[in-house]
Amino acid sequence: MTRTRFSHVNIVARDWERLAWFYEEALGCLRLPPERDYEGRDLERGTGIPGASLRGVHLRLPGYEDGKGPTLEIFQYDPRGEDPPRSVNRIGYGHICFQVSNVIEAREHVLNHGGSPVGEVVTLSPSATAAVTWCYVADPEGNIIELQRWSPFGFRRA
């Protein structure tokens, strides 16, 4: 069997530059040059979209500053596809999750940078020795993000 390693998650954006800025400023992602600007027959063949072109960038996810971790790929396509409504319980890819040191502070930071609330901050105790504090928020284009912090009992849960 071929060896496998996780590489990236892609978000198709209405405005890739604005969305990349949001993930850099609100969640600490780092831009990885070069910017991508693709078009032509090979892109059309690979995507199955006649006349396809795309622009965008890869962002290093926080916690992987050594340059060896996965990335968040943000692309803007032309022609633009459909934009179905998003919800945390829809079938298919649901959300991207970031572990944070303080969920309440991270939520406020995301909201102050153009994100929007999806639900409330809650704490669940899935085991007798730990609890997870988490919430869902959305980026400026409506993609759902989970912010979470795992804590052993006896520690502050936010």
UniProtKB/TrEMBL annotation:
Residues 5-150 form the VOC domain. It comes from the Bacteria. Pfam families: Glyoxalase. This is VOC family protein.
